[in-house]
Amino acid sequence: MKYIFYYNTKIGRIGIEENGVAITRLDFIHKDVQEEIIEKHETVLLKEAIKQLNEYLDGKRTSFDLPLEPKGTEFQKKVWNALKEIPFGETRSYGEIAKIIGNEKASRAVGMANNKNPIAIIVPCHRVIGANGKLVGYAGGLDLKEKLLNLEKNNEK
């Protein structure tokens, strides 16, 4: 059974989804959500996820300790696992992630996988920037990406 619950946070409205075992999605809600065929129910796991997310947004948490099961291709999962290894307060370029996963010519594919990350913030795709150091693409918008990076920069332990 899938469960989803919607929360108002410091960064706006988000939806967190889980499958009974692990977190499967974290979405930024930019408009009214259509009713879905997913039970809206706040589970123990969803409560823990929002608790950890709020601690992160308050500058009190630098990493997440949640079971995760993002759905994607093997390549995407490889990229997302590499994203989880980027330390709090640091960034990597798409090319650097490509090298980390052993395919240095795959920076565009890394960008596409980054774009498809279903568990934003917890799988920190906001920590990936362009090779020139510029902020590029983010599901929550570049303003939010900059805000998250600044939050991390200002709260490094």
From TrEMBL:
Its EC number is 2.1.1.63. This enzyme catalyzes only one turnover and therefore is not strictly catalytic. According to one definition, an enzyme is a biocatalyst that acts repeatedly and over many reaction cycles. PANTHER family: METHYLATED-DNA--PROTEIN-CYSTEINE METHYLTRANSFERASE. It is found in: Cytoplasm. It is an enzyme of class 2 (transferase). PROSITE patterns: MGMT. The lineage of its organism: Bacteria, Bacillati, Bacillota, Clostridia, Eubacteriales. Residues 6-70 form the Methylguanine DNA methyltransferase ribonuclease-like domain. Belongs to the MGMT family. Residues 74-153 form the Methylated-DNA-[protein]-cysteine S-methyltransferase DNA binding domain. It catalyses: a 4-O-methyl-thymidine in DNA + L-cysteinyl-[protein] = a thymidine in DNA + S-methyl-L-cysteinyl-[protein]; a 6-O-methyl-2'-deoxyguanosine in DNA + L-cysteinyl-[protein] = S-methyl-L-cysteinyl-[protein] + a 2'-deoxyguanosine in DNA. It comes from the Bacteria. GO terms for biological process: methylation. InterPro entries: MethylDNA_cys_MeTrfase_AS, MethylDNA_cys_MeTrfase_DNA-bd, MethylDNA_cys_MeTrfase_DNAb, MethylG_MeTrfase_N, MGMT, MGMT_N_sf, WH-like_DNA-bd_sf. Keywords: Cytoplasm, DNA damage, DNA repair, Methyltransferase, Transferase. This is Methylated-DNA--protein-cysteine methyltransferase. The gene is ogt. Involved in the cellular defense against the biological effects of O6-methylguanine (O6-MeG) and O4-methylthymine (O4-MeT) in DNA. Repairs the methylated nucleobase in DNA by stoichiometrically transferring the methyl group to a cysteine residue in the enzyme. This is a suicide reaction: the enzyme is irreversibly inactivated. GO terms for molecular function: methyltransferase activity.
